[in-house]
Amino acid sequence: MSIAVRLRPYQPSDVPQLHAAIVESQAEVGPWLPDLLGALNPANLHAWLDAQAADRTAGRNYHFAIVSDPDDAVLGGCGLTNPNRRHQFANLYYWVRSSAARQGVASAAVRLAARFAFAELRLQRVEIVVDRRNLASLRAAEKSGATREGLLRNRLRTGEEACDAYMFSLIPEDLEER
């Protein structure tokens, strides 16, 4: 079963649902996105929302709520970070609340974020870097149609530990084929 989703910028009114999603998902998502656990306090979420809105305006990072369509329930989050304008690429991250996992939410969000990157930001490449142990995220990247390019040694830090990660990419032609 798949859930219909859409992306939109976070809104201050998302804080209660976003907080609930983070609390619900901390065991599954926390090992891979430890910074997300720092947002367990609603006050921290409000501060993060304010900061990410400024980042969007400045063209630094683009964070999105993944919401169900049409009821607008927060299912998780994703974003395009560290855009490199010279080489026209950005990093894409995603996470899905536990109760919405295995329903096509992450792979749909990846495709929607990539479309935004290509159409709105005029990028030519989106990179997804996934800890080799994060099986759910690896599956989502593959289901989205991203190409696995290789294993990068000591590419990510999870807490204090350096770990190997797979590099995936999407380019505009990948979305045209689907």
3D architecture notes:
This protein has 178 residues and is of the alpha+beta class. The protein has one domain: Aminopeptidase. It is 37% helix and 33% strand. The chain has 6 helices and 7 strands. The protein has helices spanning 15-29, 34-37, 42-58, 105-119, 135-144, 172-176, and strands at residues 5-8, 62-68, 74-84, 89-96, 125-131, 147-158, 161-170. The chain has a 7-stranded mixed beta sheet, sandwiched between helices. A hairpin with a 5-residue loop joins strand 2 and strand 3 (74-84). It is globular, with a radius of gyration of 15 Å. The two termini are 19 Å apart.
Question: What's the helix and strand layout?
Answer:
Layout: E1 5-8, H1 15-29, H2 34-37, H3 42-58, E2 62-68, E3 74-84, E4 89-96, H4 105-119, E5 125-131, H5 135-144, E6 147-158, E7 161-170, H6 172-176
SSE succession = EHHHEEEHEHEEH
**Form type:** globular
Low-confidence stretches: none
Largest sheet: 7 strands, mixed
Radius of gyration from the CA trace? 15 Å
Strand content: 25-35%
Task: Please give the alpha-carbon distance between the first and last residues.
Answer: 19 Å
Instruction: Order the strands across the largest sheet as they lie in space.
Output: 1-2-3-4-5-7-6
Number of helices: 6
- Give the total of domains: 1
Percent in helix:
25-40%
The CATH homologous superfamily corresponds to: Gcn5-related N-acetyltransferase (GNAT)
